[in-house]
Amino acid sequence: MLGLYCSGRIYPTIVVTDLGLSLSKASFATTEIDGSQPWLATTIGATTDTMKKIIFLLLLLFLSTVTFAGEDIDSLFQQGNDFYKKGNYSQAIASYRKILDSGVKNAKVFYNLGNAYFKNNEIGRAVLSYKRAYRLSPKDSDIKFNLEYVLSFVSEEAKKTPIEKLLENLYNLLTLNELTIVIFLIYTALFISLSVYIFTRKRVLFWANITLGIILILSG
């Protein structure tokens, strides 16, 4: 039975509660430099004050963006899990893919994506997702088990030749009478093809001998 991660949060978020700084109370002294140029001290202080305000605002904007991004990722992860539980594997795949497309590389996301691909009969993509999850978390027993389990399907399928796969599909799709007709038609087509090949080959050899004879006569 394939396991499913359903953790509430998979990506760290940063919530700023108190930076220990109030812009309204921030003040910077404007003392004289060498007691001769108070305007220069005032200018430097004002510039420093402005730069610190800009840096603070940029930092606040960055932290807010990271927080909202983390919440959005958590929402997508939970959405994917809900779709998976309902059997809507295509939508679950889409949700997990959105997380990965945003730049997040998380073993749990790859693991659940592999589960969804497997349930959606996309074995190759399931194997790829499990391998990526395993590289990120090689000690996770669930990831290792699912990877080995799905690889067993791939190994058995890889042993079959194209002809065996074709015959197996025909056997599953057609009745015994229909299979008999198909085999007869294939045999007839092969017989006609072989006859045409032999006849054409004889004609080619005939004209080749005549051409060679003419060349020998003219050269002699």
TrEMBL record:
Give me the segments passing through the membrane.
54-70, 179-199, 204-219
The record's InterPro entries line, in alphabetical order, gives: TPR-like_helical_dom_sf, TPR_rpt
**SUPFAM superfamilies this protein is in?**
TPR-like
Keywords noted in UniProt? Membrane, Transmembrane, Transmembrane helix
- Gene3D superfamilies tied to this protein: Tetratricopeptide repeat domain (1.25.40.10)
Q: Where is the signal peptide?
A: none
The name on file for this protein is Uncharacterized protein
